[in-house]
Design a protein that fits this description.
Blueprint (H helix, E strand, L loop, with lengths): L15 H12 L10 H13 L20 H21 L4 E7 L4 E6 L1 H8 L11 H4 L3 H7 L4 E4 L11 E9 L6 E10 L7 H37 L3 E6 L4 E4 L3 H5 L19 H16 L5 E5 L8 E10 L2 E9 L24 E5 L2 E5 L4 E7 L2 E6 L2 E5 L4 H8 L4 E5 L2 E4 L3 E6 L5 E5 L6 E3 L5 H8 L2
Antiparallel strand pairs: 1-2, 1-5, 3-4, 4-5, 6-7, 6-10, 8-9, 9-10, 11-12, 11-15, 13-14, 13-17, 14-15, 16-17, 18-19, 19-20
């Protein structure tokens, strides 16, 4: 399993002082600290800069209002509950508890001896509390939602000091098609090392639940293929079936060259489905999945460019459901006369435009921007705002760190904790009385972006100053 590898659950007492000292410096604003595992430092950055979690928080917040789970999610949560109950018997007498959370980090159930459950409740490590990183900082449950594979967080590696007495290990069970998290299984021990068998328990849980998910994915693919065969018999346009992540399950002879996949070759297994050569089509499929999940009657249309034509191709997307759950979509490529046109999901772009796009959101539409259309980006809490030629748009990419990584090779540079700028759009540079820099951007409003002291050398090098 790609999501499973061995955890070192042994005590790290020799490094506790080093980690705590690094935590203190990082909380005070330092960026580069030693003696801390890289995955923990990355999480600390998210907590401090993206989520702005108070490191002196004494208890996790209550979860947001209850959100219904899909049938597939309920199946997995039920399986994890059975596994968690068995694991809880193994941690009795070790000050341990076992928890199961949903994809939002909301604890759904807790198992363990009464004394430890009561102690955990003091920090809201209890049912209906929120342990996402945005809610409770670095921890086994929330950090597992942010990464692939098992996560081990011990002592001062927790972002919130109130949780430094705990060691925890968690792993997210992810949808085998979309790779989005469904749930997290977590083991936590108070002032006691985690059991050596923790990694084996987590590995077994992932293996068992993913077997269930793969079976459901195969059934969904079979439903997509059946819908494809039926649609192909009466369609006048090229037709293909894609899963919820935009991977191609099957395409006909006309759709296959447009999408860059074999014709009439079904790909039932989720791990070996065809990857289309049209990234914009994948984005459209993912957008359609979000809409269809909220409204089963939703049908959408847009236009995209392919490698085989100078003019855009119309695409109509029709969701396909299996046992009440979204299986994927039928995509009709061509001038569809049997579907009512809906607002376009993305602006049309010329065929010679580089495939890299910056994805923004405007109400219920997805806007695909060329990087040069973005002047700079600013973080505002959990949101990132793009300042573009079309105005201020919310980025579809969550978090400034992730957006910075995506655009690093497109001429963008992080110049401040809250700002990333397009270096090609810098018009003027202002110097303050103490040597600080500000960048005047090439925009209609001549926006001014501050440069932090830590970023000043990198900005000078990048601009040749």
């Amino acid at each position: 399993m790609s999501d499973v590898h061995r955890l070192d659950t042994t005590s790290a007492s020799s490094g506790r002082g080093t980690v705590f000292a690094a935590w203190e410096r990082f909380v005070q604003g330092e960026d580069h600290v030693r003696g801390v595992r890289p995955e923990v430092v990355v999480s600390w950055h998210r907590c401090r800069e993206q989520y702005r979690v108070d490191p002196h928080l004494t208890e996790a917040p209550l979860a947001a209002e209850h959100r219904d789970h899909t049938l597939e999610q309920l199946v997995i949560l039920t399986e994890l509950g059975g596994l968690a109950g068995a694991m809880a018997r193994e941690v009795e007498g070790r000050n341990g508890i076992v928890t199961v959370t949903d994809a939002t980090g909301r604890i759904l159930a807790t198992w363990g001896d009464a004394a430890t459950v009561a102690r955990a409740a003091d920090a809201n490590l209890a049912t209906w509390s929120c342990w996402s990183e945005a809610g409770a900082g670095t921890n086994g449950m929330g950090t597992a939602l942010e990464t692939h594979g098992p996560v081990l967080i011990r002592g001062a590696e927790h972002w919130c000091q109130a949780f430094h007495s705990w060691a925890c290990a968690g792993i997210a069970v992810r949808d085998v098609v979309t790779r989005e998290p469904i749930a997290v299984l977590n083991v936590s021990c108070w002032r006691t090392p985690l059991p050596d068998a923790t990694d084996r328990w987590l590995s077994r849980a992932v293996t068992q639940t993913q077997t269930t998910l793969k079976g459901r994915a195969r059934d969904s693919a079979a439903e997509l293929i059946a819908a494809f065969v039926q649609a192909k018999g009466r369609a006048t346009d090229a037709v293909a079936a894609v899963d919820a992540a935009g991977s191609v399950v099957i395409a006909d002879e006309r759709a296959s060259p447009l999408m860059g996949v074999p014709a009439e070759v079904p790909a039932v297994e989720p791990a070996i489905r065809w990857r289309t050569s049209l990234p914009d089509l994948i984005r459209v499929a993912k957008y359609a999945s979000e809409r269809a999940a909220r409204n089963s009657d939703w049908v959408g249309s847009t236009q995209i460019f392919t490698h085989l034509a100078d003019e855009p191709v119309s695409v109509t997307i029709r969701p396909v459901f299996f046992s009440g759950q979204l299986a994927g979509h039928l995509m009709f490529l061509g001038a569809s006369g049997d579907a009512q046109p809906l607002p376009t999901l993305a602006p049309t772009l010329p065929p010679n435009t580089p495939m890299r796009r910056v994805v923004a959101l405007r109400e219920d539409r997805m806007v695909l921007l060329r990087p040069r259309e973005v002047s700079f980006a600013e973080s505002d809490g959990n949101d990132v705002w793009l300042f573009t030629e079309q105005g201020r748009l919310r980025s579809a990419t969550p978090g400034l760190d992730k957006l910075t990584n995506e655009l690093a090779d497109a001429g963008f540079l992080r110049v401040h904790r809250r700002y990333v700028v397009n270096l090609s759009r810098v018009r003027e540079i202002e110097r303050g009385s103490k040597g600080e820099l500000s960048l005047v951007m090439d925009s209609q409003t001549n926006d001014v972006v501050p440069v932090s002291r830590r970023s000043t050398p990198a900005v000078r090098d990048a601009l040749g100053l």
